[in-house]
Amino acid sequence: MIVLGVILILLAWLFNIGVLYTIGIILAVIGLILWILGAMGRQIGPRTHYY
User: Fold this and answer.
1) In sequence order, which residues have a C-beta less than 8 Å from that of residue 9 and are 6 or more positions away?
2) pTM of the prediction?
3) pLDDT category, 47, cuts 50, 70, 90?
4) Cβ atoms of 7 and 29 closer than 8 Å
5) At CA 40, angle to CA 25 and CA 49, rounded to 5?
6) What is the DSSP string of 19-51?
7) pLDDT, position 49
8) How far apart are CA 36 and CA 38, in angstroms?
9) Where are the domains of the chain?
10) pLDDT at 43 (0 to 100)
């Protein structure tokens, strides 16, 4: 999710599309939150680890 967010941010910057920029930031932030929670050992939904 983090990689997809970064890709969308780069595409938005290249093609000057504001909606992609917003979606990319949201995906990157959600991905970082899930990554941090998974690294702390907290269960996310039915999964013990988030990859």
Assistant:
1) 20, 21, 24, 25, 28
2) 0.77
3) low
4) no
5) 80
6) HHHHHHHHHHHHHHHHHHHHHTT--BTTBSS--
7) 60
8) 5
9) 2-39
10) 73
Cross-strand pairs, 19: none
pLDDT digits (tens, 9 = 90+) for 9-43: 999 999 999 999 999 999 999 999 988 887 887 77
Rounded-to-integer distance, Cα 25 and Cα 19, Å: 10
Taking CA atoms, 9 is separated from 4, 45, 48, in Å, by: 9, 27, 29
Residues 6+ apart with CB under 8 A from 45: none
Please give the structure tokens belonging to residue 7. 């890709």
Dihedrals phi, psi of 47, to nearest 5 degrees = -95, 140
To which residue do tokens 């999710």 refer?
1
